Fold:
Amino acid sequence: MHQSVEALVPRSYGQLELRLLRRVSFTAAYLPQVIDFVVRDVTGSEFTHPSDHEAAQIHRRLVQYAAQHQPGALELARTMLDVRHAVDLVRHEHYRATAVPREERDIVVSAARVLELAVAAGRERALPAQGGALVVAEDESRSTVYRPVSEEEAREVQVAARSTKEEAVRLHGRVVDVLAPHVLMADWSRDEGYGVAVDVAGETVSVQWWPAALPETRALWEQGGIRQLCEALLSASFVTVKADGAALKIKRCNTRSLRVI
Structure:
């Protein structure tokens, strides 16, 4: 289970670093061009996949650029340290991602993706946790915990997530079938296609008003009785409770009934 990232991704550190640097959204917009120039100077073309030896040369050139106080040097140096920090943290092939606070089902994330997330978060927000896990803090109240899992467990989580998504898609179809004969449904293909929109986000199906290019039509949903009509129509087939906010959110219950929350 414990493997180096170099074993997980068939690249030397220099190649892995270069791949990650090319995925960074730098504040200094010219830094991607600086990296391309260095790659071109070493390999002859910025589109050439560098060998291990060439990647090591590119790394040394970038270190020199960062050390010589060139434009963007501080950001490049900081990002290269973030890459090294991320590579030191990510030592497994599969991770189970759990949002905190928890909202939806866990998902499986590959080592390559966790590396990119850890680099984007930086050393201050990508932190080690027990058992080879790591935590990526999004802000003061939200974060995601990435726990290493075996290939078998990763496959089980993926199958469960796929099943949940398929259930949500079926639920979406059932909700549309209930509402469409009785209310004006949104037509996304038209600028003036306002109406009731049924959307899927993770495990949840939501029913809300889409005003299109006519924001004044939102009054039809909020004061014109369309929201109340949707609630009444849904209550005939689903277990419902009063919803807070503008949207109705429909979610499968443990009893295999459906609830609007």
Q: What stands out?
A: DSSP finds nine helices and ten strands in the chain. Residues 1-10, 253-261 have pLDDT under 50 and may be disordered. The longest strand covers residues 94-100.
